[in-house]
Amino acid sequence: METTTPLLNIDHVGIRFGGLRAVADVNIKLFPGELVGLIGPNGAGKTTLFNLLTGVYVPTEGSISFEGEDLCRLPPFKITRKGISRTFQNIRLFSELSVLDNVKVAYHSQAKHTMASSILRMPGHFSGEKDMHEKAIEFLKIFNLDQYMDEKAKNLPYGQQRRLEIARALAANPRLLLLDEPAAGMNPKETHELMDLIGLIRKKFNLTVLLIEHDMPLVMGVCERIYVLDHGQLIANGTPEEIRNNPKVIEAYLGEEVS
Amino acid sequence: MTIFKQSKGFWLSVLLSFILFTVVQLLLTGGILNSYYENMIIFMGINIILAVSLHLIIGITGQFSIGHAGFLAVGAFASAVITMKFEMPLFAGLLVGGIVAALAGMLIGIPTLRLKGDYLAIATLGFGEIVRIVFLNIDYIGGASGMQVTHMTTWPWVFGCILITILVIRNFTNSSHGRACISIREDETAADAMGINTTYYKVAAFVIGAFFAGIAGGLWAHNFYIIQPSNFGFLKSFDILIFVVLGGLGSLSGAVLAAIVLTIVSTFLQDYPETRMLFYSLILIVMMIYRPQGLMGTRELTSLFKRKTKGGSKDGNHHTTA
User: Fold this and answer.
1) Which residues of B touch A (CB under 8 A)?
2) Residue B30: what pLDDT?
3) Which of the residues A135, A183, A189, B198 could staple to A215 if both were Cys, CB 3.0 to 4.6 A apart?
């Protein structure tokens, strides 16, 4: 594993908000095809790290490179187009848009037809839209969401909304997928389905996945490696087995049972 | 070739608009509608263009801009300069009015569209006032006393401009580019994370909206014999905003409907200007209490007819669903 070049290299990254050091000196390497977990108590800086990766925040120290390219200072939409896509901790769907249109928005950056061709309704517009429409339907079928196609996203049940958010993130054609607490608020059955789904999409789309999760059985069950963040710093990294027995991790969770 | 492949609804609306045009034209030339009504109809048309152009900015892209009268003023004065000072035809005047307003939209849009919500509202409000005061102090265009403009705006011009405005904005909205704008309205952070260049689309919506407001300005200037900077104050921006809010944020036909209804109302109340504003405010208050989503909500008139056909996508992409 260590012989290949990393897909994502987070090198001594940190960010300060005024006097607060939200994330400090974080080093993470992700290799192609890996499924890696990122855990830590509330407020440890996990989502902040995601925001750093996706360009929402600019790191005040260190550097982030993806496939050898420096990502720092790129705006979020450019980072997405380079191949990093994400979901959000609190679902952020386009709630007034239909399920199908939510996916289509993610396809937009791959659209071939120009604004002028759409306004003048030139042939390019029709072929572009048709192409997008068919691809989006195909996509929804993979996620078993095609029966809700014309439903507004806000009307979906909670679990399906999470599913749609993952589908939408994948429609943006990423090579690295960042999942921010995808199982939050799900019941055990839904969580189980989610685990299967993550396994499925990983193989199907040849993805590398970085997963933030509080649901320990989920993390321990699917992740090959786990990083543990506490107070903005990495305190451990290793296989689920190693993490489970790491005294520092147990301490960070204040004696909470880690398994 | 798919270029002529449009839905039945499209051809139906082409037919209906042609009938509407001919009927009004015949009524006007036949003298059945006097100049009082002609004026009202032209004013209504200008208001429709303004409402639809602001609908793109507020209703579709979600950028709360309340300086639309600024673009109207820019278009009015630019087109009046072209026809009066350079003695060019009305068409050139309208086009230049639109282009200059669009440039103004880009100029004001690029710095201010970083702002969100109420901050953007205040910035655009400021823009509207700046335009008014700048025009007030340019002697070339008459300063406070304004410019004399020949009456050239006729029903065919107004109708043509309405048609182009609605068609362009409808086509834009019902495309991937329009969806990009709606996604910004729904959740800008998520739109950004989905690879949408949010700044680009916000500015694009602003520029297109400003362009048509500029054209409306051109029609306005050549309708009222005289234009003065004081015509384009904050209250004018507020008038246009009311069309969009009352019609239902996000509904093009709602904006058109509200523009029609409110023009009729305000025409009949024009002898009592104070009562007009009182009445307006009352309508708004009642509306916000009993129907906060506006006349049409986010729906379009066409969706009322489409109910029966099952499985058609709701965004008007008829060509993709068989």
Assistant:
1) 1-3, 5-6, 168, 171-172, 175-180, 182-183, 186-187, 189-198, 204, 250, 298, 311, 313-315, 317, 319-321
2) 85
3) A183
Residue A242: CATH number of its domain: 3.40.50.300
- In terms of domains, do A105 and A146 share one? yes
**Overall size of chain A counted in residues:** 259
A68 and A16 inside one domain: yes
A115: nearest CB among B177, B194, B298: B177
pLDDT (tens digit per residue) in A60-70: 999 999 998 99
Task: Return d(Cα A78, Cα A94) in angstroms, integer.
Answer: 20
Q: Clarify whether residues A155 and A178 are in a common domain.
A: no
pLDDT band for position B51 (cuts 50, 70, 90): very high
Residue A258 distance to chain B (closest CA, Å):
32
Check B319 against A130: CB less than 8 A apart: yes
The pLDDT, as a whole number, for residue A112 is: 86
- Which residue type sits at A150? D
My answer on whether A4 and A77 are in the same domain is yes
Shared domain for A17 and A70, answered yes or no, is yes
Among A52, A101, A109, A135, which would you mutate to test the B interface (most chain B Cβ atoms within 10 Å of its Cβ)? A101
Give the pLDDT confidence of B257-275 residue by residue, as tens digits. 999 999 998 888 888 878 8
Give the minimum alpha-carbon distance from B61 to chain A in angstroms, rounded to a whole number. Answer: 13
Q: Are residues A74 and A191 in the same domain?
A: yes
Structure tokens belonging to residue B73: 């003023």
Residue A194 burial (C-beta neighbours within 10 Å; 0-12, 13-18, 19+): buried
In a domain, A229, yes or no: yes
Q: Could you tell me what percentage of chain A is helix, strand and coil, using 3-state DSSP and rounding each to the nearest 5?
A: 40, 25, 35
pLDDT tens digits for range B89-136: 999 999 999 999 999 999 999 998 888 878 999 999 999 999 999 999
Residue A71 within a domain: yes
Q: How many angstroms separate the CA atoms of B234 and B241, rounded? A: 11
Are A191 and A242 within one domain?
yes
> CB pairs below 8 Å between A and B: how many?
128
Q: What is the pLDDT of residue B314?
A: 39
A238: tokens are 């290793």
Cβ contacts of B258 within 8 Å, gap of 6 or more: B51, B242, B243, B244, B246, B247, B294, B295
Inter-chain touch A105–B193, beta carbons under 8 Å: no
Q: ipTM value of the model?
A: 0.90
Kindly state whether residue A93 falls inside one of the protein's structural domains: no
Q: How far off is chain B from A83, nearest CA to CA, in Å?
A: 10
Summarize pLDDT for B135-158 with one digit per residue, the tens: 999 999 988 889 999 999 999 999
Range of the domain at A23: 1-83+174-259
Last residue of a domain, one of A139, A165, A191: A165
CB contact under 8 A, B189 and A128: no
Domain boundaries, chain B: 38-233
Domain count across chain A: 2
